[in-house]
Design a protein that fits this description.
This protein has 190 residues and is an all-alpha fold. The protein contains eight helices and no strands.
Length: 190
Amino acid sequence: MHVHDDPDVEAADLAVRLRAGDREALAEMYRRWSPLVHTIALRSLGTREDAEDVTQQVFVAAWRGRHTVRPDLGSPAAWLVGIAKHRVADVRTERYRSHRNMHAVAAEVVTKPVSVDDSNWAERLLLVHELERMGDPRATVLRMAFVEDRTHQEIAEALDLPLGTIKSHVRRGLLALRDRMKEVERVSSH
């Protein structure tokens, strides 16, 4: 029997080649197992965009961590699935943090009047300004989610938009706000 007739031997060979720094082995692993990784991420996270991001991150992490693959201890597919589970957990943690932080900031913007003595007034004004800059429907979606504390489903029904679109607006809007706030922090700390 030829070595490549046995899928387990061929998979172990890919792992050995990857560990040795063979980029073609990574490409072959991607061709072979990216659908599996994508399916796991999609089922866990619910959005195609997040699943695609996680799939890319898994194979970047596989390349960077190639020295950790153990061809003698199991299939590379199982190793990739392990990386995928960690990435999915990271995305969930990030979603939770973003949601929690935005709720806190939005609650402050709504309930706390801005005064010149207030050290955070500039940050809150910036948040309101950034929401206005975003334009609709994203700004409206974020206001409804974090100022009015509505669920994604309630927003979808109120705006007559698909639930996936609402989730995408929230995710992208939070990322944009986070990046903008970091940028302002960087500029103001110099």
